[in-house]
Amino acid sequence: SITSALITLLCLSAPGGVSLVVPQPNINATVAQNILLSVEYSCRGIATVEWKHVSSWGTTKIVEWKSGNYINISTVYKDRVTTFENGSIQLLNVGMRDAGYYFVTVTEEYGTNTYGTIIVNVYEIIYEDLHFVAVLFAFLAAVSAILICFMWLCNKSLHLFQKKAAHKLTASTTEEIELETIEC
């Protein structure tokens, strides 16, 4: 594959024989999503892989392990990190605090090392905001429908009242005219 060819090329060009490929240096995720911080390293001897997270809240060591030997996961990430032999890690259930820079260091047993960086952006899910807007819009539509019906009823009542008043007015004028003619 292309990744293997790149690793072989980097391994041949690296003086100590350590190479590291970061295929996806930028990751966009939403809250509660699982993300894979994918890398692939190659070296001639036994390597130590170390991951750190740097953000505005500080620097945190996530995990460190040697090929086939031990894995030392930070207590903060104990239940949230899965490691892979190629140097990648999976971070489960990300939150806003997980946004930032992830630095991976691969160190060969003879002291040669190489670095890689992945930038992670974490966004909040905006469904709650959209839900609020939808409910508010439905409420306002219902209130306006009630107000329109009320105005229609008021208008009808006003027309009926005006008809009755006009009818009474014409009836009383007719009575006055009749009374006047009789008196003469």
What does this structure look like?
Keywords: Glycoprotein, Membrane, Signal, Transmembrane, Transmembrane helix. This is VSTM5 protein. Its main location: membrane. The chain crosses the membrane at residues 130-154. The chain has 184 residues and is an alpha+beta fold. The chain folds into two domains: 19-125, Immunoglobulins (Immunoglobulin-like), CATH 2.60.40; 126-183. It is 38% helix and 33% strand. It has a six-stranded mixed beta sheet, with no helix packed on it. Strands 3-9-8 form a three-stranded antiparallel beta sheet, with no helix packed on it. Strands 1-4 form a two-stranded antiparallel ribbon. Strand 10 and strand 11 (113-123) form a beta hairpin. The chain is rod-shaped.
Unreliable stretches? 1-14
Which structural class is indicated by helix and strand composition?
alpha+beta
Fraction of residues in helix: 25-40%
Largest sheet: 6 strands, mixed
Please identify, by name, the CATH architecture of the largest domain: Sandwich
**Cα-to-Cα separation, first versus last residue:** 121 Å
User: What is the CATH homology-level superfamily of the largest domain?
Assistant: Immunoglobulins
CATH class descriptor of the largest domain: Mainly Beta
InterPro entries: CD2/SLAM_rcpt, Ig-like_dom_sf, Ig-like_fold, Ig_V-set
Main location: membrane
Keywords: Glycoprotein, Membrane, Signal, Transmembrane, Transmembrane helix
Signal peptide: 1-19
